[in-house]
Amino acid sequence: MKILNFPLLLTACLLVFSHLATQASANEQFEITHTLTVELSLEDRQLKATDHLTRSDPKNPWPLFWHLAPQATDIQATADGQPLTHQFIDGKLSLPELLATTEVLTLSWQAHFADPIPEQTVGIEDPSYGVRATIHEKGVFLSAQSDWLPSAAGYPATSRLTVIGPRGLIAVSNGLLLGIEHKGVHTVSHWHNRTPQTRQALSAGFLELSQTEHNNTQLVILFSKENQSLALSYLEATRQYLDLYTELLGPYPYDKFAVVENFYPTGYGLPGWTLIGNRVLRLPFILTSSLPHEIVHAWWGNSVGVDYGSGNWCEGLTTYLADYLLKELSNPNEAREYRLKILRDYASLVNSGNDFPLRDFHSRHNKVEQAIGYGKAAMVFHMLRQKIGDQPFWLGLRQLARDFSGETASWSDLQNIFEKSSGEKLGNFFEQWIDRKEAPQLSLQETLHYQLNSNWVIEGKIIQQPPPYQLEIPLQIQTEQGNSRQVIEVEAGETPFRLETP
Ligand SMILES: [Zn+2]
After folding, report:
1. In angstroms, what is the span from residue 364 Cα to ligand 1's centroid?
2. Are residues 133 and 267 in the same domain?
3. Residues 330, 264 within the same domain
4. Distance 392 CA to ligand 1 centre (A)
5. How far is the CA of 304 from the centre of ligand 1 (A)?
6. Ligand 1: centre distance to CA 462 (Å)
7. Any idea what the Cα angle at residue 239 is, between residues 282 and 26, rounded to 5°?
8. Where among 282, 314, 343 does a domain terminate?
9. Distance in Å, CA 16 to ligand 1 centroid
10. Residue 316 Cα, ligand 1 centroid: separation in angstroms?
11. CB 51, CB 335: distance < 8 Å
12. What is the largest CA-CA distance in the chain?
C-alpha cells in the first residue's frame, strides 16, 4: 500500500486543468483555428506571440470578448491586415470594430509569466502547486487557465502551433507532434491539435524525443538526458496500457499520448499527455500507478468531462480502473488489500463532523476529501460492478465514453447509462451512495451454530444502524471441507440469515 498516497497526490491535479480545457461537443461543427507562433525567452521570462485566427464557418459570428492573460502587453490586432482598435481590461479583450465579414483576425502580444515553482511535493495538498504559468531558465509551463493564448467561452478551437525557443528547448501541447527542428541557436517545435478545445496548456523543457506509432496513436516520450534510460520502459508501458484500456473502454480518444518530463514536481493530466516531475519519473512505482491513472484520465476527465455542479465522479472511476483494477488483474490478494486500505482510510479519517456526500465532492484538498472523493467513490464503482455484473458494467463504461465524448457527464448520466446497460433500476443504489453521507455500520448478533444431520448450520442476524441501506452482503463460512458463500439481501435494520455447510 506504499504507493497509494503519492499517486493520488500526483494525479489529483487533473481536476484543476482538464475541465477548463473542455472539448467541444461532438456535434459541434463550428470552430476557430489558431495558427500561432510563440517565441519563448527564458531569460526575460517572456513570450511573444502572433496568432492568425480563422473560423470554420464564416457565417458564424466572431466572439464579442476574448480571454487573454492579464499580463499581456503590446497587444495589436488586425482584421484581414487592417489595424483594429481594442480594449483590454483585466484579461478581457474586446474588438469593437471587428466585422462579421473579417476572414482572418490577427492578434499579437507579449506576456511575462513568473509564478514561483515548488521544489518539493511532500505535504503539498494543492495539486496545482499554485503554478498557473511560469517561464523559467529550466523550462516552461503555461496552464490552460492562464490564458496564455486567446480563448472565448463557447468557441472551441483547433490549433497549429509553432514554438521557437533557445536551442534544445522542446515545446509540447495538445495534438500531434509534426516535427522538431534545430536551427542555429533555436529549436522550433510544431504541433497540430485537431480536437477542438477552448483552451490548451503548453510546456517546454530541455528534453530528448523518443517516438513511435501504435495503432494509429502517436506515442511520444520527452525526457531529459539524465532520465533517458527510462524512456523505453515508459514507451512500452504506455503501449500496454493503451491496449488494455482500449479493449475495456473503447477507442483511445486522442491521436497521441505523450509522457513529458517537467522541471518541477507535478503529475498533471492533460488531453493526450501527462506532465510528470523529473524526480518523480524515477520513482519505480510511477510506471505502474500514476502512468495508468493518467492514461485512464484520457477517457474520464479529458474526453468525457465532469459536470462539477452535480459532483465529481471521475476521480473515483479513474482510481478504480487504474490504481485498483491493475492489482485485481495481477493478484487478487493485492486487490483485496487495496479495498481494505480504502475502507481503513475512510474509517480512520472520516467522522460525522467532516463527512459529506459524494455528490458534494469536487476536488481533493486534504486526506478526508481523498478518502471520500477517490476512495469511497472507487468502492461505489466496485459495488456497482458486483451488483450489475461485469458485462453490463464494461458495456456501460464504453457507452459513457462514446456518448459523452466532448461533453460533460453527471452522476445522473452515469445512473442512466448503467440502468440501460444492465436493465436494472438503480435509483436506490445511486441515491444511498451518492446523496447520503457516512457508510453502513454493520454488526452480527445472536449468532449460533449447530449440527444438523451431517451438516453444520450457522444462524444469526445482520444489524445495521438506522436509516438502513439496501445492501448485498456476501457471507462466507470457512470449514475444513472448503468455503460456503451466500449473498444476503439486507434492507432492514435487522436481517436474519441461515447458512448450511456440507
Ligand atoms: Zn486522477
Report:
1. 10
2. yes
3. no
4. 24
5. 13
6. 36
7. 115
8. 282
9. 10
10. 8
11. no
12. 98
Q: DSSP secondary-structure letter at 155? A: B
The CATH number given to whatever domain includes residue 175 is 2.60.40.1730
Tally of structural domains, the chain: 3
Q: How far is the CA of 282 from the centre of ligand 1 (A)?
A: 20
Q: Are 170 and 182 in contact (CB under 8 A)?
A: no
pLDDT, one tens digit for every residue, the chain (502 residues): 222 233 333 333 333 333 333 444 434 468 999 999 999 999 999 999 999 999 998 888 999 999 999 999 999 999 999 999 999 999 999 999 999 999 999 999 999 999 998 776 544 444 556 789 999 999 999 999 999 999 999 899 999 999 999 999 999 999 999 999 999 999 999 999 999 998 999 999 999 999 999 999 999 999 999 999 999 999 999 999 999 999 999 999 999 999 999 999 888 889 999 999 998 899 988 999 889 999 999 999 999 999 999 999 999 999 999 999 999 999 999 999 999 999 999 999 999 999 999 999 998 889 999 999 999 999 999 999 999 999 999 999 999 999 999 899 999 999 999 999 999 999 999 999 999 998 998 999 999 999 888 888 899 999 998 899 999 998 888 877 778 888 999 999 999 999 888 7
CA of residue 400 to ligand 1 center, whole Å: 18
Ligand 1 centre and the CA of 66: distance in Å?
30
How many CA atoms within 13 Å lie on the side-chain side of 122?
A: 1
The burial of 443, by beta-carbon neighbours within 10 Å (0-12 exposed, 13-18 middle, 19 or more buried), is given as: exposed
Grid cell locating 13: 491535479
Ligand 1 midpoint to CA 14 (Å): 6
Quote the domain boundaries for residue 478: 442-501
Distance CA 309, CA 18 (A): 15
Q: Give me ligand 1 centre to Cα 231, in Å.
A: 23
